[in-house]
Amino acid sequence: MERRLLYSDRYFDVVGLGAGDADGSFLASRPAVAVVAIDDDGGWWFVREPAPAAASAAIVAVTGVVEGAETPTASADRELREELGRAAGRLVHVGTIRPWVKYLDLTVDVCAAIGLRADDSGAVGDEAVAPQPVRYTPEEFDAAMVSGEIVDGMTIAAVALVRRWLADSAD
Questions:
Q1: Which of 48, 57, 70, 111 could form a disulfide with 74 if both were Cys (CB 3.0 to 4.6 A apart)?
Q2: More confident position, 1 or 31
């Protein structure tokens, strides 16, 4: 099926399929990473940042676009430093997700970051408003998800993959 670029910006392309796009269209985005950062006390770190589509702030995993020839783990390391101001002693790729697969061509590599330490590299992200770090215990995360405080599907899916990895690692 013929793909036709209808619109493009820094983050997304709108792609049409077929003659007159009668067969539908979808969004496409660059490959990305989502990081669930876990501190030595078992706390999970996320960020609160503006979510324009929701007209509010949202609590989300550390995320970002894979730049150039970066590997997913190199991108995860960069985003962790930029958004949380922390570095990981170890980054582990735990899986890949395709959020909203019917209408969004996006592959997100999910990483767990463990052995967190303060980052002194001075890395600065590209967000117009700096993300605010937020820490939850696993139980607090679950309560925040149930209450509707955390609603981002990509974050919830990333946590599910990290939980599975943690359970498998404990065996």
A1: 70
A2: 31
